[in-house]
């Protein structure tokens, strides 16, 4: 697998994948619109953003992934990130709504992602990328687990759902290189901090408000996938 430059991805491929993303997003929209992911005690107001944005977001996301990864690993790498993208959109919506990352979404994503990355490695012959992904995923999971322990001692809202998601972020970015994982991690903390400060500045929240961290982790992941051209180390 060569990371020297962006490979040329046919426009038709990007368009087809984007349309498929819109179709999958419509199915996801219908599921999210029911609010079935909410627990009995999660009875707050619905999200301010209409759920109709879900198909549009997933179509754009899948198109971006198709453009970014299309021909890599004999066209076998893109499906790994397409599947993760669908899970990411669902997790972002749910965490923004109820501040929870359902294990029913995060845990099944692990074997699915590992299998798809293994297929990509088999197609490209780059097994080192897969081993790096496994190691980085485990390390990032451990780092977040330690952060969650500290947060629990301090009474913070940093939870185990973020820890589980961290492993997925480490797997998906570690396959590209450790530098991509660093970009995703730093971006998540910087973006969430900027959001929290902006809420305070606009007087829409306070310092003690709980902020859903999952969406910022996933946005950092997206940024890392887009900017990662080749592994630095």
Automatic annotation (TrEMBL):
Keyword Nucleus attributed: no
Assigned keywords, A-Z: Membrane, Transmembrane, Transmembrane helix
Signal peptide limits: none
The keyword Transmembrane is assigned to this record: yes
Transmembrane spans: 49-69, 76-94, 109-127, 134-155, 175-198, 210-229
Source superkingdom: Bacteria
Protein name: Leader peptidase (Prepilin peptidase)/N-methyltransferase
Xref: InterPro entries: Prepilin_peptidase/N-MTase (IPR050882)
């Amino acid at each position: 697998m060569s990371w020297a430059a962006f490979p040329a991805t046919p426009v038709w491929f990007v368009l087809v994948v984007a349309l498929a993303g819109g179709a999958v997003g419509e199915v996801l929209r219908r599921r999210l619109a029911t609010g079935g992911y909410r627990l009995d005690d999660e009875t707050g107001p619905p999200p301010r953003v209409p759920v109709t944005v879900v198909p549009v977001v997933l179509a754009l996301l899948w198109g971006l992934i198709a453009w970014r990864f299309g021909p890599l690993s004999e066209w076998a790498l893109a499906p790994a990130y397409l599947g993760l993208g669908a899970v990411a959109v669902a997790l972002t919506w749910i965490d923004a709504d109820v501040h929870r990352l359902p294990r029913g979404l995060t845990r099944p994503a692990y074997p699915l992602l590992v299998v798809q990355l293994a297929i990509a490695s088999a197609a490209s012959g780059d097994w080192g990328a897969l081993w790096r992904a496994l190691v980085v995923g485990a390390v990032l999971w451990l780092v977040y687990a330690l952060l969650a322990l500290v947060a629990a001692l301090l009474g913070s809202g940093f939870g185990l759902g973020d820890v589980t998601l961290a492993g997925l972020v480490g797997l998906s970015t570690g396959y590209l290189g450790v530098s991509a994982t660093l970009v995703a991690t730093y971006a998540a903390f910087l973006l969430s901090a900027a959001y929290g400060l902006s809420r305070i500045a606009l007087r829409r929240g306070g310092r003690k408000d709980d902020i859903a961290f999952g969406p910022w982790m996933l946005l950092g992941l997206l940024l890392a996938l887009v900017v990662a051209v080749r592994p630095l180390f």
